[in-house]
């Protein structure tokens, strides 16, 4: 009798572990950190993707509207996946999408945009990856929501999916 | 093209022979022959042979840069040196699983060859349990991670191998680690088979001990190679970061180490049988669990987002089938022999090994909880946390003190019943260790008491094992070597963490940076071009206060495919410390961020792990161990 009880306990423990791992697998592995202190975006000068002219951050983020900054690269496979989400976001006229091309080969990156479309109103080149670091990025892809006062209010680490798209849309309303 | 096709069909043929082999061995299990059927041996060879062909097929696809193969396309490039084309074969998910399968089939074949003296039913049952695992892996590979997926139209160029994986230590690290992991599968199957056949005996212990030693040596070496790679390639200036990927390799090592000691008790005294069986099951389950955690993407490090839930679910279901199968068998067949438990006297070698087990279990649970707790928390409450080094250090380091003391005294005890001899000498040695460590640490301001006690216990073990090495006249020599290696390892790690020193600064060419122990001048920059990367080499001169001048040349590599910048640290290795310099670019190009470190006793960490392995090897080749 006592033994049966023991088996049931051990068995249920492992079933519990199984359920947790199973659910964990289906969880999105996008990490959305809480931002307590809204950080201002860094001040910088970067090269434009198409014209390769220098542009300052004040010029890029001068409108009183919401911005979404997306860090991407042509060699990054998850970026390819999230690109359709970005294309959908770009139809929303109330926001501006800024792309930050991270440590990339310019030719490959241009092919990437030609192939999948250009959701961004502006793309910047971050050849050394230092700009991404100043934004506080951990890797690619990563997406930041920037408010009217040029403060980062939300940060998504990892590729965007439909669920996050809805979250972003709620945020922007 | 051809190699790809051959590889794919050999894999399917391999699965076919695997199923056939299982059928034949079931028939062989029930017939009246005293000996194992020759067919079983032949089929198990064929199974191995076709996996080898399949693996060679993949290697040739990599060598010929056949980008019609999806795995090659994703992980190789024509400009890669030949060596990395070959090592790229197992540097990715699909290829590494094929390597798993290769080692699995090799080991079961060797097991059949080497176990002639064992009872037939036990051998066949071990084979059958192993076949469950092998077929599981065959299906997993063919269904979710086929390395021979075909691409059309054939791309002209591949995406390239991640540059941080282009490293000699990492080229041999996976195969050796897998030998350890997969070796534990043989132990798992053999333990299950032995328990069903009621064959857990001194003879069995003697025979399985060799397999335990082999997997243990490989696992130890594999972990060390991974750690060496992390030390000089990742450029973070350490050798262990408590990263989930590292933890999952350490967990089976802990249970395997406990098992290695338990099996001796079983061999000599026929006690601790439950421990042996449970540890055998746990070791393999943890190896599989590690594969699951790393391969499914459930545990993410912030730099990778590769995630394929389908793969994860397959391994998860497979893992739990194995867990329930083994638990079921254990509960159903296991009869605890109570007489043996009562016979263990409190002061004996058995007790000391039991204590060692409990310590191993404690360390294991700390690491297991630290690694999996974030998953549980995420699922239950949706919170994301990451568990870092302070957690592990706070929970593990204090317990090292009693562990080291027990480890010093334990091997001195005899089997059955013992008493401590030479009490005076043992106490004197401890006092000497305490004074010595106080003398070394006296300038240290923080945590002086705690560190002194910790280092004294490490020194204590060190002195006692040295004494044993020279005085015991080669009695238990392998054990003395391994324990000596371990004490050296702990001492080096402790000294490394206490006496290391680091400077981080931004500097440009021609500048000089002065810190309290000397100064660093950045002399010039040199540019180099190679086939698969371009590099920038910085020339630095370091003057220390004692007037010693060191030249260091760290490197930044810009790989062409995929475009990734990696920093290669320059490390000067001396007997007592490593000088480590790594540089990174900073925005504005003129400045470089440099990290200069002096890592004390670094080289001794590797030497001591090698000594531990050497102990294991000697024990493997010694005919009569542990009289």
Would you write up a description of this structure?
Chain A contains six helices and eight strands; from the N terminus they run αβββαβαβαβαββα. In chain A, β7 (142-146) and β8 form a beta hairpin. Chain A has helices at residues 2-26, 57-60, 77-89, 106-116, 130-135, 162-172; strands at 39-40, 45-48, 54-56, 66-72, 95-102, 122-126, 142-146, 151-157. The model of chain A has no long low-confidence stretch (mean pLDDT 79). By secondary structure, chain A is α+β, with helices and mostly antiparallel strands. With 627 residues, chain B is of the alpha+beta class. Chain B folds into three domains: 1-166, no CATH class; 169-334 and 350-367, Up-down Bundle (Four Helix Bundle (Hemerythrin (Met), subunit A)); 501-602. In chain B, β4 and β5 form a beta hairpin. The A-B interface holds A 7, 10-11, 14, 18, 20-27, 29, 31-33, 44, 75, 77-78, 103-105, 108, 128-131, 134, 138-139, 141, 157-159 and B 159, 292, 296-298, 300, 302-307, 309, 312-313, 316, 320, 323-324, 327, 331, 375-376, 378-380, 384, 562-565, 585-587, 589.
Secondary-structure topology with pairs:
The complex is a heterodimer of chains A (173) and B (627).
Chain A: H1 2-26, E1 39-40, E2 45-48, E3 54-56, H2 57-60, E4 66-72, H3 77-89, E5 95-102, H4 106-116, E6 122-126, H5 130-135, E7 142-146, E8 151-157, H6 162-172
Parallel strand pairs in A: 4-5, 5-6
Antiparallel strand pairs in A: 1-8, 2-3, 2-6, 4-7, 7-8
Chain B: H1 2-30, H2 38-63, H3 70-75, H4 82-87, H5 93-114, H6 120-144, H7 168-196, H8 202-233, H9 244-269, H10 273-296, H11 309-333, H12 338-343, H13 349-381, H14 389-409, H15 423-441, H16 448-471, H17 477-499, E1 501-508, E2 512-515, E3 518-529, E4 533-544, E5 549-552, E6 555-560, E7 563-568, E8 570-573, E9 577-585, E10 591-600, H18 602-621
Antiparallel strand pairs in B: 1-10, 2-3, 3-4, 4-5, 4-6, 6-7, 8-9, 9-10
Helix pairs in contact in B: 1-2, 1-6, 2-5, 5-6, 5-7, 6-7, 6-11, 7-8, 7-10, 8-9, 8-18, 9-10, 9-13, 10-11, 13-14, 14-16, 15-16, 16-17, 17-18
């Amino acid at each position: 009798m006592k033994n049966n009880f023991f088996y049931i306990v051990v068995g249920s423990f492992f079933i519990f572990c199984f359920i947790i791992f199973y659910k964990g697998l289906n969880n999105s592995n996008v990490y959305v950190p809480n931002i307590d202190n809204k950080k201002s975006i860094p001040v910088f000068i970067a090269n434009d993707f198409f014209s390769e002219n220098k542009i300052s951050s004040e010029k890029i983020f001068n409108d009183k509207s919401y911005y979404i900054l997306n860090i991407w690269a042509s060699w990054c496979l998850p970026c390819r996946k999230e690109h359709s989400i970005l294309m959908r976001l770009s139809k929303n006229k109330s926001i501006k999408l800024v792309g930050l091309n991270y440590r990339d080969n310019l030719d490959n990156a241009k092919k990437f945009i030609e192939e999948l479309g250009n959701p961004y109103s502006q793309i910047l080149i971050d050849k050394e990856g230092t700009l991404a670091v100043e934004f506080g990025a951990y890797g690619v892809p990563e997406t930041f929501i920037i408010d009217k006062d040029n403060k980062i209010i939300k940060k998504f680490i990892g590729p965007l999916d439909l669920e996050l798209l809805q979250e972003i849309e709620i945020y922007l309303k | 093209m051809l190699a790809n096709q051959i590889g794919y069909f050999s894999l399917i043929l391999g699965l076919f022979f695997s199923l056939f082999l299982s059928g034949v061995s079931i028939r062989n299990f029930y017939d009246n022959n005293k000996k194992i059927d020759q067919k079983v041996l032949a089929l198990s060879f064929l199974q191995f042979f076709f996996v080898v062909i399949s693996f060679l097929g993949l290697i040739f696809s990599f060598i010929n840069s056949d980008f019609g193969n999806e795995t090659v396309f994703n992980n190789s490039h024509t400009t890669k040196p030949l060596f990395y084309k070959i090592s790229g074969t197992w540097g990715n998910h699909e290829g590494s699983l094929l390597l798993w399968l290769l080692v699995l089939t090799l080991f079961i074949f060797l097991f059949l060859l080497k176990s002639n003296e064992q009872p037939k039913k036990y051998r066949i049952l071990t084979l059958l349990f192993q076949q469950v695992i092998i077929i599981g892996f065959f299906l997993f590979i063919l269904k979710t991670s086929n390395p021979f997926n075909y691409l059309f139209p054939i791309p002209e160029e591949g995406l390239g191998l991640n540059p941080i994986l282009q490293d000699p230590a990492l080229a041999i690290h996976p195969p050796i680690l897998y030998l350890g992991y997969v070796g534990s599968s043989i132990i798992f199957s053999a333990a299950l088979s032995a328990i069903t056949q009621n064959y857990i005996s001194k003879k069995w212990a003697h025979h399985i001990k060799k397999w335990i030693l082999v997997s243990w040596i490989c696992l130890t070496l594999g972990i060390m190679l991974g750690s060496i790679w992390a030390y000089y390639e990742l450029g973070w200036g350490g050798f262990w970061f408590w990263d989930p990927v590292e933890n999952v390799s350490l967990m089976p090592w802990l249970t395997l180490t406990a098992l290695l000691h338990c099996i001796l008790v079983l061999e000599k005294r026929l006690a601790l049988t439950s421990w042996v069986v449970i540890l055998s099951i746990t070791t393999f389950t943890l190896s599989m669990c590690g594969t699951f955690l790393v391969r499914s993407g459930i545990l993410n490090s912030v730099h990778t987002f590769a995630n394929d839930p389908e793969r994860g679910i397959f391994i998860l279901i497979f893992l739990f089938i194995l867990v329930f199968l083994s638990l079921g068998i254990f509960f159903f067949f296991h009869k605890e022999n109570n007489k043996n438990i009562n016979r263990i006297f409190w002061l004996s070698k058995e007790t000391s090994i039991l204590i060692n087990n409990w310590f191993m279990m404690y360390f294991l649970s700390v690491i297991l909880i630290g690694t999996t707790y974030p998953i549980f928390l995420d699922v239950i409450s949706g919170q994301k946390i990451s568990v870092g080094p302070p957690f592990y250090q706070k929970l593990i380091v204090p317990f090292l003190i009693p562990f080291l003391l027990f480890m010093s005294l334990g091997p001195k005890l005899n089997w059955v019943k013992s008493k401590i001899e030479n009490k005076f000498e043992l106490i004197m040695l401890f006092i000497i260790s305490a004074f010595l460590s106080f003398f070394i640490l006296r300038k240290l301001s923080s945590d002086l008491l705690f560190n002194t006690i910790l280092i004294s216990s490490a020194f204590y073990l060190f002195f006692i094992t040295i004494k044993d090495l020279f005085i015991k006249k080669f009695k238990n020599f392998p054990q003395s070597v391994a324990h000596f290696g371990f004490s050296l390892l702990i001492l080096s790690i402790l000294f490394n963490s206490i006496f290391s020193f680091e400077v981080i600064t931004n500097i440009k060419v021609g500048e000089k940076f002065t810190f309290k122990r000397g100064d660093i001048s950045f002399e010039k920059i040199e540019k180099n071009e190679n086939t698969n990367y371009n590099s920038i080499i910085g020339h630095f001169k370091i003057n220390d206060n004692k007037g010693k001048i060191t030249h260091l040349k760290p490197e930044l590599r810009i790989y062409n495919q995929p475009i990734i910048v990696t920093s290669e640290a320059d490390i000067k290795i001396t007997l007592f410390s490593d000088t480590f310099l790594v540089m990174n670019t900073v925005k504005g190009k003129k400045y470089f961020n440099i990290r200069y470190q002096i890592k004390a006793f670094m080289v001794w960490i590797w030497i001591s792990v090698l000594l531990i392995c050497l102990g294991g090897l000697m024990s493997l080749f010694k005919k009569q161990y542990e009289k």
